[in-house]
Q: What sequence folds into this?
Protein backbone atom coordinates (compact mmCIF):
# COMPACT_ATOMS: atom_id res chain seq x y z
CA UNK A 1 0.00 0.00 0.00
CA UNK A 2 0.97 3.62 -0.53
CA UNK A 3 0.32 6.32 2.06
CA UNK A 4 -0.26 9.96 1.16
CA UNK A 5 0.31 12.00 4.31
CA UNK A 6 -0.80 15.63 4.44
CA UNK A 7 0.69 17.34 7.47
CA UNK A 8 -1.50 20.01 9.05
CA UNK A 9 1.26 22.58 9.43
CA UNK A 10 0.62 25.74 11.44
CA UNK A 11 -0.32 28.71 9.26
CA UNK A 12 2.34 31.27 8.54
CA UNK A 13 2.10 34.73 7.08
CA UNK A 14 5.49 34.48 5.39
CA UNK A 15 6.62 32.28 2.56
CA UNK A 16 6.19 28.69 3.74
CA UNK A 17 8.17 29.29 6.94
CA UNK A 18 6.33 26.45 8.69
CA UNK A 19 6.97 24.03 5.85
CA UNK A 20 10.66 24.86 5.58
CA UNK A 21 11.26 24.25 9.30
CA UNK A 22 8.90 21.34 9.99
CA UNK A 23 8.63 19.37 6.76
CA UNK A 24 12.23 18.02 6.79
CA UNK A 25 11.77 16.78 10.37
CA UNK A 26 8.44 15.17 9.49
CA UNK A 27 9.97 13.48 6.45
CA UNK A 28 12.66 12.10 8.76
CA UNK A 29 9.95 10.54 10.92
CA UNK A 30 8.35 9.01 7.83
CA UNK A 31 11.71 7.54 6.79
CA UNK A 32 11.84 5.84 10.21
CA UNK A 33 8.88 3.76 9.04
CA UNK A 34 9.83 3.26 5.39
CA UNK A 35 12.89 4.40 3.42
CA UNK A 36 10.76 4.93 0.28
CA UNK A 37 9.50 8.48 0.92
CA UNK A 38 8.74 11.09 -1.73
CA UNK A 39 8.30 14.66 -0.52
CA UNK A 40 5.37 16.65 -1.92
CA UNK A 41 6.14 20.19 -0.77
CA UNK A 42 4.93 22.25 0.91
CA UNK A 43 3.15 19.92 3.35
CA UNK A 44 2.74 16.34 2.12
CA UNK A 45 4.58 13.12 1.31
CA UNK A 46 4.05 9.77 -0.38
CA UNK A 47 5.27 6.69 1.51
CA UNK A 48 5.54 3.18 0.08
CA UNK A 49 4.86 0.96 3.11
CA UNK A 50 4.72 -2.44 1.44
CA UNK A 51 8.05 -3.46 2.94
CA UNK A 52 7.20 -1.80 6.25
CA UNK A 53 3.99 -3.83 6.52
CA UNK A 54 6.03 -7.03 6.53
CA UNK A 55 8.77 -5.62 8.77
CA UNK A 56 6.49 -4.19 11.47
CA UNK A 57 3.73 -6.78 11.09
CA UNK A 58 1.15 -3.98 10.76
CA UNK A 59 -1.19 -2.94 7.98
CA UNK A 60 -1.22 0.46 6.27
CA UNK A 61 -3.81 1.98 8.62
CA UNK A 62 -1.80 0.94 11.68
CA UNK A 63 1.41 2.36 10.20
CA UNK A 64 -0.44 5.61 9.48
CA UNK A 65 -1.50 5.76 13.14
CA UNK A 66 2.10 5.16 14.20
CA UNK A 67 3.31 8.03 12.02
CA UNK A 68 0.55 10.31 13.34
CA UNK A 69 1.57 9.60 16.96
CA UNK A 70 5.24 10.28 16.18
CA UNK A 71 4.42 13.52 14.32
CA UNK A 72 2.35 14.77 17.25
CA UNK A 73 4.93 13.73 19.84
CA UNK A 74 8.02 15.08 18.08
CA UNK A 75 6.68 18.06 16.11
CA UNK A 76 3.23 18.80 17.51
CA UNK A 77 1.75 18.34 14.02
CA UNK A 78 -1.34 16.29 13.21
CA UNK A 79 -1.89 14.82 9.76
CA UNK A 80 -4.45 13.49 7.32
CA UNK A 81 -3.60 10.19 5.65
CA UNK A 82 -4.91 8.48 2.55
CA UNK A 83 -3.94 4.90 1.71
CA UNK A 84 -4.32 3.12 -1.59
CA UNK A 85 -2.68 0.55 -3.85
CA UNK A 86 -1.04 3.36 -5.88
CA UNK A 87 -0.01 7.00 -5.50
CA UNK A 88 -3.07 8.37 -7.31
CA UNK A 89 -5.62 6.64 -5.08
CA UNK A 90 -3.60 7.50 -1.97
CA UNK A 91 -3.60 11.20 -2.90
CA UNK A 92 -7.32 11.19 -3.69
CA UNK A 93 -8.11 9.40 -0.42
CA UNK A 94 -6.10 11.99 1.51
CA UNK A 95 -8.15 14.77 -0.08
CA UNK A 96 -11.41 13.42 1.39
CA UNK A 97 -10.07 12.15 4.73
CA UNK A 98 -10.98 14.06 7.88
CA UNK A 99 -8.22 15.66 10.01
CA UNK A 100 -6.63 13.11 12.30
CA UNK A 101 -7.98 10.13 10.34
CA UNK A 102 -6.86 7.64 7.70
CA UNK A 103 -8.93 6.93 4.60
CA UNK A 104 -8.08 3.51 3.15
CA UNK A 105 -9.09 2.55 -0.40
CA UNK A 106 -8.34 -1.08 -1.26
CA UNK A 107 -8.00 -2.55 -4.74
CA UNK A 108 -11.52 -4.00 -4.49
CA UNK A 109 -12.93 -0.60 -3.49
CA UNK A 110 -11.06 1.43 -6.12
CA UNK A 111 -13.68 1.35 -8.89
CA UNK A 112 -16.50 2.29 -6.52
CA UNK A 113 -14.44 5.04 -4.91
CA UNK A 114 -13.60 6.58 -8.28
CA UNK A 115 -17.01 6.13 -9.91
CA UNK A 116 -18.46 9.54 -9.03
CA UNK A 117 -15.22 11.49 -9.34
CA UNK A 118 -15.00 13.94 -12.28
CA UNK A 119 -12.73 12.72 -15.03
CA UNK A 120 -10.48 15.77 -14.48
CA UNK A 121 -9.61 14.36 -11.03
CA UNK A 122 -7.67 11.48 -12.60
CA UNK A 123 -3.91 11.83 -12.91
CA UNK A 124 -2.79 12.83 -16.38
CA UNK A 125 -6.15 14.32 -17.42
CA UNK A 126 -5.68 17.99 -18.17
CA UNK A 127 -8.26 20.57 -19.16
CA UNK A 128 -8.14 19.81 -22.88
CA UNK A 129 -8.44 16.04 -22.41
CA UNK A 130 -11.24 16.46 -19.86
CA UNK A 131 -13.13 18.77 -22.22
CA UNK A 132 -12.81 16.26 -25.07
CA UNK A 133 -14.03 13.37 -22.92
CA UNK A 134 -16.94 15.41 -21.56
CA UNK A 135 -18.01 16.23 -25.12
CA UNK A 136 -18.55 12.48 -25.57
CA UNK A 137 -20.43 12.14 -22.28
CA UNK A 138 -17.47 10.63 -20.45
CA UNK A 139 -17.50 13.18 -17.65
CA UNK A 140 -16.86 10.85 -14.70
CA UNK A 141 -14.30 8.18 -13.88
CA UNK A 142 -17.10 5.61 -13.64
CA UNK A 143 -18.26 6.31 -17.20
CA UNK A 144 -14.69 6.19 -18.49
CA UNK A 145 -14.11 2.85 -16.73
CA UNK A 146 -17.31 1.43 -18.26
CA UNK A 147 -16.42 2.56 -21.79
CA UNK A 148 -14.64 0.14 -24.14
CA UNK A 149 -10.90 0.73 -24.28
CA UNK A 150 -11.01 1.05 -28.07
CA UNK A 151 -13.45 3.96 -27.79
CA UNK A 152 -11.13 5.86 -25.43
CA UNK A 153 -8.19 5.26 -27.74
CA UNK A 154 -10.06 6.57 -30.76
CA UNK A 155 -11.06 9.72 -28.88
CA UNK A 156 -7.76 10.75 -27.25
CA UNK A 157 -5.13 8.44 -28.75
CA UNK A 158 -3.82 4.95 -28.11
CA UNK A 159 -1.42 5.62 -25.24
CA UNK A 160 -3.42 8.35 -23.50
CA UNK A 161 -6.62 6.36 -23.89
CA UNK A 162 -5.14 3.30 -22.21
CA UNK A 163 -3.65 5.34 -19.36
CA UNK A 164 -6.92 7.17 -18.62
CA UNK A 165 -8.94 3.95 -18.91
CA UNK A 166 -6.63 2.15 -16.48
CA UNK A 167 -6.61 5.00 -13.97
CA UNK A 168 -10.40 5.19 -14.04
CA UNK A 169 -10.30 1.54 -12.92
CA UNK A 170 -7.79 2.30 -10.15
CA UNK A 171 -4.78 0.91 -12.01
CA UNK A 172 -1.82 3.19 -11.34
CA UNK A 173 1.58 2.20 -12.70
CA UNK A 174 3.48 5.14 -11.21
CA UNK A 175 5.79 4.59 -8.26
CA UNK A 176 6.98 6.50 -5.23
CA UNK A 177 10.28 8.21 -6.08
CA UNK A 178 12.48 8.66 -2.97
CA UNK A 179 14.19 11.98 -2.28
CA UNK A 180 12.26 13.87 -4.97
CA UNK A 181 12.18 17.03 -2.86
CA UNK A 182 15.24 18.42 -4.65
CA UNK A 183 13.34 18.39 -7.95
CA UNK A 184 10.97 21.12 -6.78
CA UNK A 185 10.70 24.22 -4.64
CA UNK A 186 7.56 25.62 -3.06
CA UNK A 187 6.17 28.68 -1.35
CA UNK A 188 2.95 29.24 0.53
CA UNK A 189 0.72 32.10 1.64
CA UNK A 190 -1.82 31.71 4.46
CA UNK A 191 -4.52 34.36 4.71
CA UNK A 192 -5.29 35.94 8.10
CA UNK A 193 -8.90 34.81 7.63
CA UNK A 194 -10.73 32.62 5.10
CA UNK A 195 -10.52 34.71 1.96
CA UNK A 196 -13.30 35.11 -0.63
CA UNK A 197 -11.83 38.09 -2.50
CA UNK A 198 -10.33 37.09 -5.85
CA UNK A 199 -8.12 40.18 -5.80
CA UNK A 200 -6.39 38.94 -2.66
CA UNK A 201 -5.99 35.51 -4.23
CA UNK A 202 -4.28 36.99 -7.29
CA UNK A 203 -2.12 39.24 -5.12
CA UNK A 204 -0.89 36.18 -3.21
CA UNK A 205 -0.20 34.31 -6.46
CA UNK A 206 1.74 37.29 -7.81
CA UNK A 207 3.90 37.28 -4.69
CA UNK A 208 4.39 33.49 -4.80
CA UNK A 209 5.41 33.49 -8.46
CA UNK A 210 7.83 36.36 -7.86
CA UNK A 211 9.41 34.56 -4.93
CA UNK A 212 9.81 31.26 -6.77
CA UNK A 213 11.24 33.02 -9.80
CA UNK A 214 13.81 34.89 -7.70
CA UNK A 215 14.84 31.70 -5.87
CA UNK A 216 15.28 29.75 -9.10
CA UNK A 217 17.23 32.54 -10.80
CA UNK A 218 19.46 32.79 -7.74
CA UNK A 219 20.23 29.08 -8.03
CA UNK A 220 20.47 29.25 -11.86
CA UNK A 221 17.56 26.85 -12.32
CA UNK A 222 14.36 26.75 -14.37
CA UNK A 223 11.18 24.73 -13.88
CA UNK A 224 9.04 22.79 -16.34
CA UNK A 225 5.67 22.94 -14.56
CA UNK A 226 3.75 24.65 -11.76
CA UNK A 227 1.43 23.05 -9.21
CA UNK A 228 -1.15 25.11 -7.34
CA UNK A 229 -2.53 23.82 -4.03
CA UNK A 230 -5.62 25.55 -2.66
CA UNK A 231 -6.68 24.82 0.92
CA UNK A 232 -10.21 25.74 1.89
CA UNK A 233 -11.93 26.68 5.14
CA UNK A 234 -13.09 23.08 5.69
CA UNK A 235 -9.45 21.87 5.35
CA UNK A 236 -10.12 20.18 2.01
CA UNK A 237 -7.68 20.88 -0.81
CA UNK A 238 -7.56 21.11 -4.58
CA UNK A 239 -4.33 20.48 -6.48
CA UNK A 240 -3.79 21.39 -10.13
CA UNK A 241 -0.64 21.16 -12.27
CA UNK A 242 0.17 22.92 -15.53
CA UNK A 243 3.13 22.32 -17.82
CA UNK A 244 4.87 25.48 -18.97
CA UNK A 245 5.39 26.26 -22.65
CA UNK A 246 9.13 26.21 -22.03
CA UNK A 247 11.35 25.75 -18.96
CA UNK A 248 11.60 29.13 -17.26
CA UNK A 249 12.33 31.09 -14.10
CA UNK A 250 10.83 34.28 -15.55
CA UNK A 251 8.43 35.73 -12.99
CA UNK A 252 6.01 37.06 -15.60
CA UNK A 253 5.63 33.61 -17.20
CA UNK A 254 5.23 31.97 -13.79
CA UNK A 255 2.61 34.53 -12.78
CA UNK A 256 0.62 33.97 -15.96
CA UNK A 257 0.62 30.20 -15.42
CA UNK A 258 -0.39 30.65 -11.77
CA UNK A 259 -3.28 32.93 -12.75
CA UNK A 260 -4.45 30.41 -15.37
CA UNK A 261 -4.40 27.59 -12.82
CA UNK A 262 -6.39 29.72 -10.38
CA UNK A 263 -8.96 30.74 -12.97
CA UNK A 264 -9.49 27.13 -14.06
CA UNK A 265 -10.75 26.26 -10.56
CA UNK A 266 -13.66 28.73 -10.58
CA UNK A 267 -13.26 29.85 -6.95
CA UNK A 268 -15.74 32.74 -7.05
CA UNK A 269 -17.56 31.56 -3.90
CA UNK A 270 -14.84 29.51 -2.24
CA UNK A 271 -13.44 30.48 1.14
CA UNK A 272 -9.70 29.98 0.75
CA UNK A 273 -7.45 29.48 3.76
CA UNK A 274 -4.09 29.29 1.97
CA UNK A 275 -2.45 29.08 -1.44
CA UNK A 276 0.74 27.19 -2.23
CA UNK A 277 2.69 27.22 -5.48
CA UNK A 278 5.30 24.62 -6.35
CA UNK A 279 7.80 24.79 -9.21
CA UNK A 280 8.53 21.28 -10.46
CA UNK A 281 10.93 19.62 -12.83
CA UNK A 282 13.87 21.83 -11.89
CA UNK A 283 16.82 21.73 -14.27
CA UNK A 284 19.97 23.86 -14.65
CA UNK A 285 19.20 27.01 -16.62
CA UNK A 286 22.15 26.49 -18.96
CA UNK A 287 20.67 23.15 -20.09
CA UNK A 288 17.27 24.61 -20.99
CA UNK A 289 16.38 25.95 -24.42
CA UNK A 290 14.64 29.31 -24.61
CA UNK A 291 12.33 30.44 -27.39
CA UNK A 292 13.68 33.62 -28.95
CA UNK A 293 11.33 36.59 -28.90
CA UNK A 294 11.35 40.07 -30.38
CA UNK A 295 8.88 41.40 -27.82
CA UNK A 296 10.50 44.54 -26.31
CA UNK A 297 8.22 44.36 -23.25
CA UNK A 298 9.43 40.85 -22.46
CA UNK A 299 13.08 41.81 -22.83
CA UNK A 300 12.53 44.89 -20.65
CA UNK A 301 10.89 42.76 -17.95
CA UNK A 302 13.84 40.36 -17.97
CA UNK A 303 16.32 43.24 -17.62
CA UNK A 304 14.34 44.64 -14.70
CA UNK A 305 14.38 41.17 -13.09
CA UNK A 306 18.14 41.02 -13.42
CA UNK A 307 18.49 44.41 -11.72
CA UNK A 308 16.11 43.34 -8.94
CA UNK A 309 18.06 40.11 -8.42
CA UNK A 310 21.31 42.06 -8.04
CA UNK A 311 19.60 44.37 -5.52
CA UNK A 312 18.44 41.38 -3.48
CA UNK A 313 21.90 39.85 -3.56
CA UNK A 314 23.45 43.09 -2.29
CA UNK A 315 20.85 44.42 0.15
CA UNK A 316 18.91 41.32 1.16
CA UNK A 317 15.54 39.73 0.22
CA UNK A 318 13.50 42.70 1.48
CA UNK A 319 15.18 45.09 -0.94
CA UNK A 320 12.51 44.20 -3.52
CA UNK A 321 8.96 43.23 -2.59
CA UNK A 322 8.35 39.72 -4.10
CA UNK A 323 6.26 39.96 -7.24
CA UNK A 324 6.18 43.74 -7.35
CA UNK A 325 7.92 43.85 -10.72
CA UNK A 326 5.82 41.15 -12.34
CA UNK A 327 2.55 43.07 -12.58
A:
Amino acid sequence: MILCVRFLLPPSGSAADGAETLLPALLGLAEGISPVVQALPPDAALIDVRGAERYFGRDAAQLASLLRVRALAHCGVDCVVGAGPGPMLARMAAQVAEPGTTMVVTEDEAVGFLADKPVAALDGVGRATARTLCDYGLDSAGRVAAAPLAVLQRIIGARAGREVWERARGIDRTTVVPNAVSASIAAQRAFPHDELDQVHHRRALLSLAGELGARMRGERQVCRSLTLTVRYADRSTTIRTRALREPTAHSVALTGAAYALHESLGLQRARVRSLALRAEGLTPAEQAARQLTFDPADERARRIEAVADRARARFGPRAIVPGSLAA
User: Anything to note?
Assistant: Strands lie at 2-7, 37-40, 44-48, 79-84, 102-104, 184-195, 221-232, 237-248, 272-280, 283-284.
